[in-house]
Amino acid sequence: MSRGGAVTGKQQPGAETRDRLIEAAAETVRSHGYAGTSARAIATTAGVNSALVFYHFGGVDALLLAALDRSSQQRMTAYRQAVDKCRTLEQLVETANEIYHADIEGGHITFFAEMVGASIARAELRKEITARAEPWIDFVEEALERVIGGSPLARLLPPRELAYAAITFYLGVNLFTHLDADRTRTQALFGLAERTAPRARLLTMRLPGRRRTDKPPAPDEP
Predict the structure, then answer these.
(1) Is the pLDDT score of 34 beyond 80?
(2) CA distance 197 to 210
(3) Residues 6+ positions from 124 with CB-CB distance below 8 Å
């Protein structure tokens, strides 16, 4: 119990309204795009007065950024668990394929792509989106460093630069998916990566003196 006898486990009305607005904001962008997302459209989806968008968040963009933060946090938690299990390039490509399908079906990457598109003409929004993209670049880089770090492949394709390429590819794939109705062309790209990964196995063998970061060195290692 809290002061005044209120039950602490029950969500307060203000917090509940914020949650409804955040969920409605993401749904509205996924359905109507950034251009079709207004305070009224979000409020209609949430079933509340549009004035509450400004009361709780100060404006539409601030609300959309809050929704993007929630989506990113949920995805990062789920995807980190999946990626952390990968120990080979083949496993990493397979997991990336699964993540792609989850993002397309859930509309997460569509939401992010819409925000990226909106930021092109809005400098203040661009700064916010760039800051939110960095953790994802770091996430991809960490996964690549764990799997190929210290190998000839990493020298040829440094994990940081490869992470940039992966994020750029991912955004492009999302946009192209809307033109590729049955996704056959998009899926062909992942199929190519899956066929290439085993052939790159020799290039992922670590150079002498480089230790894996996901397990301690053997007792006889110097």
Answers:
(1) yes
(2) 21
(3) 61
Q: How many CB atoms lie within 10 A of CB 60?
A: 20
Structure tokens given for 31: 């359905």
Answer whether 0.85 is exceeded by the pTM. Answer: no
**Cβ–Cβ < 8 Å for 24, 43:** yes
Which residue in 95, 186, 193 sits closest to 139, CA to CA? Answer: 95
Say how far apart CA 69 and CA 98 lie, in whole Å: 22
From residue 202, how far is each of 103, 152, 207 by CA, in Å? Answer: 31, 9, 11
Tens digits of per-residue pLDDT, 148-163?
Answer: 988 898 898 899 999 9
Q: Per the structure block, which two tokens stand in for 11?
A: 């969500």
Q: What is the pLDDT of residues 176-189, one digit of tens each?
A: 766 666 777 777 87
34 contacts 43 by C-beta, under 8 angstroms: no
Instruction: Report the distance separating Cα 196 and Cα 188, nearest Å.
Output: 12
Instruction: Give the Cα separation of 111 and 124 in Å (integer).
Output: 18
Instruction: Enumerate residues 6+ apart whose C-beta is below 8 A from 51.
Output: none
The pLDDT of residue 5 is above 50: no
